[in-house]
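User: Second chain of the day. Same drill as before.
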Amino acid sequence: MEDIFARGDALGPAKVIHVFQPQLGLKGVLVVDNVACGPAIGGLRMAEDVSTAECARLARAMTMKNAAAGLPHGGGKSVLYGDPKMARADKERLIRSFAFALRREEDYIFGPDMGTNEECMAWIKDEIGRSVGLPCEVGGIPLDRLGATGWGLSQAVEMAIPYCDFSLTSARLVVQGFGSVGKHSARFLAERGVTLVGASDSRGTLHDPSGIRVEELIGIKNQGGSVLDYPGGTKADRDAVIDLECEIWVPAARPDVLHEDNIQRLKTKLVAQGANIPLTLGAEQYLHAQGVLCLPDFIANAGGVICAAMEYHGAGQTEAFRTIAEKIRDNTQQVLAEARQNGILPRQAAINLATRRVERAMTYKRWGIF
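Assistant: Same format as last time:
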């Protein structure tokens, strides 16, 4: 078993729970990292290769994300081992069973993540009454369908442009992982004049230097297709997306897609992290040394959790999207200004911002408990 306690620190993790019910084929993990700011909000990730270590890293990212966004929530994450494309009835049974097993863990509020969606959150809501990212029919703001995370990322990119040597209207965009986050990031950035020239999914990479019709590609994906089904451009394997030249590169899939062994292949000027922990620290340090601006994940992709928190506290869609823009624009400006002033990585500036808020919140708790 991975010993995440050996890597703990003053912030957490506060709690790690393993759920294992072999008769149901159920195996999952919950990590509640820190609840000084309030009950933790974090997504339920479903995949066959998830791990406790990944869950712990994602939970810490949520602590940083929620604190940086000024939300009254701490950070947590849950992972469920399994194929997210399994039969709907089997998936519902597993998710409901996992939620029921964690029904007394009131310090954690489920949200959607890779492999889960608003329907899954509705099952959890019905089971234990504690989830966000719900369908509108049960009072939710469908953040994946509306593109809350992509909307927030587009705001972060816009605020980063004064720190770059190109304009939005002349920028070429490549999206690694053209799913719920990637496609909406492309849509909102295209509305600002950015040209999508590359996109990838689990099946491969699409490249067209003359520009990809974003709405058409989104339509293909919404019908269950792949970027490889797009009528035009050149096609390659999914790893080829790293080699496509552009001004803005958006990772919007799994952790650690850019690392010390492949980061030298990247040809871009701005990396806006739509996924959680998509770059290793070594990769970010390399980009910084090369003069490539890298927007940290928990600053750039906080739109989804801001929307989820607003939903949880009864806000509507209009107010949620206004708040996303306000918070992400302000945080991006603060982080990039501090990074430039102090000559540090934007990630370190973001960690400083979030840590100050968490540590301040911890002083209000009895014995500083998290």
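The longest helix spans residues 317-342.

User: Great, on to the next one.
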